[in-house]
Amino acid sequence: MNRVEKVSRRGFLGTAIGAGALVLGVQIHEADAATPAWMPSVYLGLEPNGTAVIVAHRSEMGTGIRSVLPMVVADELEADWKKVRVEQAVGDTKYGSQNTDGSCSIRDFYDAMRQAGATARLMLEQAAAKKWNVPVGECKGQNHFVVHTKSGKKAAYGELVKAASALPVPKKDDLRLKPESEFRYIGKEMPTIDQADHTRGAGKFGIDAKMPGMLYASIERPPVLGAKLRSFDDAAVKGMKGVVRTATIEGFKPPHVFQALGGVAVLADSTWAAAQGRKKLKVEWDLGPNASFDSAREKAEILAKVKQPGKVVRNVGDVDKAFAGAAKVHEASYYVPLLSHAPMEPPAAVAEWRDGKVITYAATQNPQAVQEAVAGAMGIKKEDVICHVTLLGGGFGRKSKPDYVCEAAMLSKQVGKPVKVVWSREDDIKFDFYHANAGMYMKAALDEKGKPTAWLHRSVFPSIGSTFDASAEYGQEFEMGMGWVDLPYAIPNHRAENGAHKNHLRIGWMRAVAHIYHAFAIHSFVDELAAAANRDRVEYILDLLGPDRHVPIEPVGMKYWNNDQGQDKFPVDTARLKRVLQVAAEKSGWANKKPSKGRALGVAAHRSFLTYVAAVVEVEVDDRGRVTIPRVDIAVDAGQIINPERARSQIEGAAVFGTSLAMMGEITAADGRIVQSNFNNYPVARINEAPRVTHVHLVPSKAPAAGIGEPGVPPIAPAITSAIFAATGKRIRELPVRKTKLV
Amino acid sequence: MIQLKVNGSAKKFDGDPEMPLLWYLRDVLDYTGTKFGCGAGLCGACTVHVNGEATRSCVTSMKDAAGKDITTIEGLGAKSEHPLQTAWKQCNVSQCGYCQSGQIMQAAALLKAKPKPTDADIDTAMQGNICRCGTYQRIRQAIQIAAGVKA
Question: What's the ipTM?
């Protein structure tokens, strides 16, 4: 993947489209044909005026990645950041994976970005050496100049572009990567390129994209997953002011993957007119088998299933024997409901079908998935889908599933004009790919000090696998590998079991994914065990983690997912988990803040996305049972940190996201239809409900870069509920907290 | 014919008088800095000033906007240098950035009414504005910096 090569101007940013055709902040890079820019890598070009054009191939949804990866390129290039222009890549496999998901952008592309920058710098140094007739070893790229170190002679990068572009691309072994001491941007507090735009409303999101002559669509979708359109009556819609026509969208063929759900669309000359027209549609559906689906009944089923043996997915020692001989056992069941992503910008895209091709501007986390899904829907080659990536008003996993882009493309082909699809908030809440609801049963055998000698953990949940295989009933390797089969505790007997369960809704990954429910059950249970043993929580967890070691994870019937990384490079390292726990305890003042009535701390330490995080949450519960969170301390070891400022902001945000799902988030279905519709009945944390302040403590680490966008989320919910227990004596085994009366 | 002023310019509108101001600003005038978030006055992403008051444009009809003076994020500060915009940049508040126009417009109305807001004032004024990325502590910090009050 990391092979650097020269590419043509045309290959650089995909197919050029009509100049001025689109009003967007991210414009196609316009190189003058007479003085072409030089592109030594797919990620990097230099214009003759010296401007470095760096391609952001990952999507920007708030992590800062479209600034931070280019900063890595700029650093190795020795570019002056003021002379760098970042351009957003279209979807194209030549960039490698563009799926901005799984907290892996830095981990997977840090080396490639450094190599791209170092390659261009070396070629500029070689061009200067040739020009001055000196050894290349005496020439050094420095802040957008090549300097001859012996004489002090300088040449601007722009002056060297022409000569450099005639040179062969150097081999990887010939590159000289900068030592850490010479880093300009890596590891520094650099602001992102979008901050200023966001303060003046100038950032361009999917919802802001326009194409000339486009129509706005509002779509009535099947109310139950798999329902089929029986008939519709649009007589009342025709002739409404602004309404142009109606159109149908064919339903999906199982498995649904990222296909459009189908339905009836009203197309109009404004968002408002389309929405008004939709209200007048009369649509009849054949609801199908999911129409009897009911969340309350499903929850009871799941909580019954976890009491029964399931498929063994990890097995260490002999749990049954240990339970048989145990002096004391402790058991508990936990439940986490369905959740919706609810990004502030709902799914939005504009697409045009033109001459057998599709051009789209979409808020997407994965433009290559857009290419595939749209190509599948239209019966064309994926190369004929040109996907321009806008800014994303939040993603959280929702926008890696491009059903809404398919809708826009399918409608455009029917109406012969570009079509913009913007989901209403009700559409977003009712037709999401939901975060799975899960039931967990935990049982531990305890020694005389209250430490587990055996640990049984059963989980039952509808699998994300059902999105790709309609018959899937068991968890996928990656779902099992998320903070479950990789339990790092020093317990001699350990078994994990997964019970079968079918989906009745679209199930998809949401920020931190299966870690959310596994972390809630595991760390809540640990808190219960520590409480039963009357032990200090931090000391108890340290004891559970045991000696400093790498824990080999050997699940049954599958390999350990480990974010698709080897355990040699990214082992499960108890020393790192203990370290973040100790830092969080120290910084929060854990030892000196003993629980008092209505005010207490809770703690959880969890490894996810190869990053080690410990959170200490302080809660206050007033005499009416209202919970506030005055302070959170989170210690993070994510390996090498490229931009500490954005790393902190991600963890601050994760504390709020975790608070939302812990305190208030719940999606339910009745008669196969989602009950919730908007922020009134699917609340998320507001400024007065979020943690008042989150202190992020980045633990210095020599380990390779790991994830930062998601790992802050999993420990928040169990830390909150453990704190509530310490403050009130109320044990919460089911989220969200708001369903439990605390006084 | 509805007449109104947007960011200081006189405008005329002869479309559906029930159309929310939000869609007029976005679809007709192309002031896309004002965002859609919920369509029901629940999230604050669409906040603009109507005669100086922070208002949810998604639930304000054009007929109710008639004769009013509307300010959007694009018209907030000369050269985008309202003290809040400066403080927002100083604190690197934004993550995805989508809700921030609404947050800043809401905060600007707060500071106009209460130039030195307390923590509780900030809670009260800002709780209608959702940020799903969770930038609240920096929003609070930026308001305090712009107002010159201590955290």
Answer: 0.98
SS3 A280: coil
In total, how many domains does chain B have?
2
Q: What one-character DSSP code corresponds to residue A179? A: P
- Are A272 and B19 an interchain contact pair (Cβ–Cβ within 8 Å)? yes
Give B116-149 pLDDT, tens digit per residue.
999 999 999 999 999 999 999 999 999 999 999 9
B54 strand-pairing partners: B49
**In sequence order, which residues have a C-beta less than 8 Å from that of residue A179 and are 6 or more positions away?**
none
CA–CA distance, A321 with A339 (Å, rounded to integer): 38
**Which among A195, A241, A688 has CB closest to B92?**
A195
Whether A31 has a pLDDT exceeding 90, the answer reads no
Residue B78 banded pLDDT, cuts 50, 70, 90: confident
A428 in Cβ contact with A307 (< 8 Å) = no
Which domain, by its residues, includes B93?
78-147
B134 to chain A, any CB pair closer than 8 A? The answer is yes
B14/chain A closest Cα distance in angstroms: 12
Q: Does B80 touch chain A (CB under 8 A)?
A: yes
Q: pTM for the complete prediction?
A: 0.96
Distance from C-alpha of A708 to C-alpha of A107, rounded to nearest angstrom: 10
Of B16, B85, B127, the CB nearest to A200: B85
Q: Which run of H or E residues covers position A689?
A: none
- Check whether A18 has a pLDDT greater than 80: no
Burial class (CB in 10 A: 0-12, 13-18, 19+), B18: exposed
Domains contained in chain A, CATH given: 9-196 (3.30.365.10), 206-289+347-422 (3.30.365.10), 295-339+433-739 (3.30.365.10)
CA distances to A57, A91, A146, A320 from A116, rounded to whole Å, are 13, 19, 17, 55
- A133, containing H or E segment: none
Residue A425 is classified by DSSP as: H
- Residue with the two structure tokens 């070893």: A137
